[in-house]
Amino acid sequence: MWNEAVHQQRSCRKPTFGKLSKLLTEARARSSWLRDGSQVAQQQTLRTYALAFQHSFRVKGRGRPRPKRRKDTLPSLEYTTRGFSIRDHRLRLPGGVSIPVVWSRELPSDPTSVRVYQDCLGYWHASFVVRRDTTPAPEANGTIGVDWGVTTTATTTDAVYDLPYLGHRKRCAAELAKAQRRMARRRRVKGARPSNGYLRAERQTARIAKKAARQNIHDARVWVKRVVDNHALIAVEDFQPKFLAKSRMARKAADAAIGIAKRELVERGLRAGRKVVLVPPAYTTMTCSQCGTRAKNRLGLGVRVFRCDTCGYTACRDRNAARTILATAERNRAGADDVRHAITSFRDGARVRSEPEIPRLPAVGKR
């Protein structure tokens, strides 16, 4: 259904959910195998595609939806209240499918939809959308600036709230390499069916990689909770770690999981009602946080101490960048959907405000 919607994208200028639904009705009338499937799941797939297509226009740099290959895409089905029910603690789906569910916790209310998906280990999960009572965040008056890095994942204006580099993937590197060599030995020629031994080795490799990823997510959430609960203004460096994948720091950057920590910080800050400011990283390392003077020469990665030639201020390179980010957020105002963007320029040593047009970010929903 997804690939067919992508094909219609090329022939139709703007494939909306209404147009795709009409095409689905015609396709179900022609194909018996399509009628045997759940219409609710098929419509939800088209709805997800339509939202992704609309989202590609709102976010700069996000391309159009692309076709998915079966061997690279894990199965996922979404049902609304018309397509599933819960009876005797079992999930019942169309076609007489009854699934015994291992419940992680009781549902606080009746679910409005469910997404059934498979992870890289072969386990199946059911994610329900429910309404729940939110706990208000504690009152806070503090401010904090966050600068991302590789040696220290997050350096803040207050050293107490720093997120150190924990190196979970580094500790699993030897075990992961051993599992990957086992996969390589058991790999058959291209086109042949993989052996059971290869599938077991592939599963073990995925288990080791997912363990490190879960540890990174857990540590990021614990750190974010401390930051959000104690600060009303959170200035975050709008750092894009994608370019590090092509550098020599690719492995360590992936282990630091900067993207996970940044996403958790922005989402939880919005949910708690905090003021979250995304500051572009340009010249934050070269700018003095005390007088606002920008250094004439770029600082190499080996230089870890910032020294200002104008006022003589000396501080840790990353700590000075975090304070510059916080100062930029406090003296600018340009906002969209509670996520504020700030850009500050310096001319002849004086700080000048600027508020360019910035695309609106999508609102973060509650699940």
TrEMBL record:
Specify the Probable transposase IS891/IS1136/IS1341 domain's residue ranges.
Answer: 129-240
Keywords assigned by UniProt, alphabetized: DNA recombination, DNA-binding, Transposition
Task: List the protein's name.
Answer: Transposase
The record's listing under Pfam families reads: Cas12f1-like_TNB (PF07282), OrfB_IS605 (PF01385)
Question: Keyword Hydrolase, does the record have it?
Answer: no
Question: Which GO MF terms are attached to this record?
Answer: DNA binding
- Work out whether the entry's keyword set contains Cell membrane: no
* All residue ranges annotated as the Cas12f1-like TNB domain in the record: 271-325
> Which terms under GO biological process does the entry name?
DNA recombination; transposition
Tell me the protein family, please. In the C-terminal section; belongs to the transposase 35 family.
Q: Which NCBIfam families match?
A: guided_TnpB
- Superkingdom of origin: Bacteria
Return the InterPro entries for the record.
Cas12f1-like_TNB, Transposase
